[in-house]
Amino acid sequence: MVGVDRFKEIEIEAMTWRRYLHENPELDYRVNDTAAFVAEKLASFGINHIECGIAETGVVALIQGQLGDGPTIGLRADMDALPILEASGKPWTSKRSGQMHACGHDGHTAMLLGAAKYLAATRNFKGSVALIFQPAEEDGRGGQRMVQEGIMDRFGISQVFGMHNWPGMEVGTFGICEGSIFAALDEFDIVVKGRGGHAAAPHLTIDPVVVAAQIILGLQTLVSRNTDPTESLVISVTKLNAGQAYNIIPERAEIAGTVRTLSPILRDFAEKQIEACAENIARASGAKVEFQHRRLEPLTVNHPDQTRRATEVARALVGHSSVNPKVKPSLGSEDFAYMLEARPGACILLGNGSTAALHNPTYDFNDEALPYGIGYWVNLAEAALAP
């Protein structure tokens, strides 16, 4: 096991990469410059097997160990930024207005590059390490596309691991849990169809605005009165559109929102009951509804054996007390879920300190976390591929 102090030698270089990436964020699949930067660095480390253009702009590189034949494990980092106007005030703030690395993918990419440099120089493992640099995690299901385009079979990946920085957790600490660590994410749209008319004669109309308001309140009881309070279900109505004039009751009202769950059973329950709630309330008022439900990200589920391996590696790196093996799952979603559906693996949380929250315009990845992330990747690879 290589101690974290060894990776502080790479910290300054990794910090330079991270800040360059922060200054030059790119969105979704349009991470062309980022992917080119990653590929150039990988080649400079002496890595010969580099494939670009997977899922449009994804990069996968393969490092062969020097201790003999063995399996291949995948280590994944995401590369894309968010459509947010940065307000961090850092010297390395985004040069692209309305785009910023507000989720730390610049740090994720830099840490995997740091691990790649070390592993390519030492190759103290059997088998191979596949370095997966993924586009479009935030909005585009880049993880799903990389799986669909066959990276697991093409590179012979038998296990896959992810990592995400976590504000509020102390730098130098890790958190992980077996089972669901990130929630499933779904979206829904409800169109309420009533009968419009003059605002002075509401009795001659079927007011879709009132019906929509009752539906919104009714949806909250699915969480507060129809779900076990020890389980996690979040239904958030985030859009409500109706009417254009003060004196006209409109024909229709539109509701939209998201559903987040940590259980497949609750996910099915929510889909059925949101529609039933909307239809029953509308029917009582003489209105009709159209309902659409889209399943986006699946549950991010950590597999037992890989979770234990990740926990052991993190504890060996930072100490037993600095790793929480039963961290509270997040109701956020993570499209690394698709890779964990394709292969056994685990996603771990890395402490980012007392920074702003993820997706906040003042957020910035904490460079002090870099050697811990690099050290985790290196030791995980060497432990999982030990002779």
What features would you describe in this structure?
The chain is about 35% helix and about 25% strand. It is of the alpha/beta class. The chain folds into two domains: about 5-180 and about 300-385, Aminopeptidase, CATH 3.40.630.10; about 185-295, Alpha-Beta Plaits (2-Layer Sandwich), CATH 3.30.70. The protein has an eight-stranded mixed beta sheet, with helices on both faces. Strands 10-12-8-13 form a four-stranded antiparallel beta sheet, covered by helices on one side. Strand 1 and strand 2 form a beta hairpin. The longest helix is centred in the C-terminal third of the chain and has 22 residues, at about 265-285. The radius of gyration is 24 Å and the shape is elongated. The mean pLDDT is about 95.
CATH architecture of the largest domain: 3-Layer(aba) Sandwich
| Spatial arrangement of strands, main beta sheet | 1-2-4-3-5-16-6-15
Strand content: 25-35%
Distance between the termini: 14 Å
Number of E-state strands: 16
What is the compact description of this entry?
By secondary structure, this protein is of the alpha/beta class.
Secondary structure blueprint with pairings:
Blueprint: H1 8-23, H2 32-44, E1 49-54, E2 58-64, E3 72-78, H3 105-122, E4 128-134, H4 142-148, H5 151-154, E5 157-166, E6 174-175, E7 179-182, E8 184-193, E9 197-198, H6 208-224, E10 233-242, E11 248-249, E12 252-261, H7 264-285, E13 288-297, E14 300-302, H8 304-318, E15 323-324, H9 337-342, E16 345-351, H10 370-384
Parallel strand pairs: 3-4, 3-5, 5-16, 6-15
Antiparallel strand pairs: 1-2, 2-4, 6-16, 7-14, 8-12, 8-13, 9-11, 10-12
Helix pairs in contact: 1-3, 3-10, 6-7, 8-10
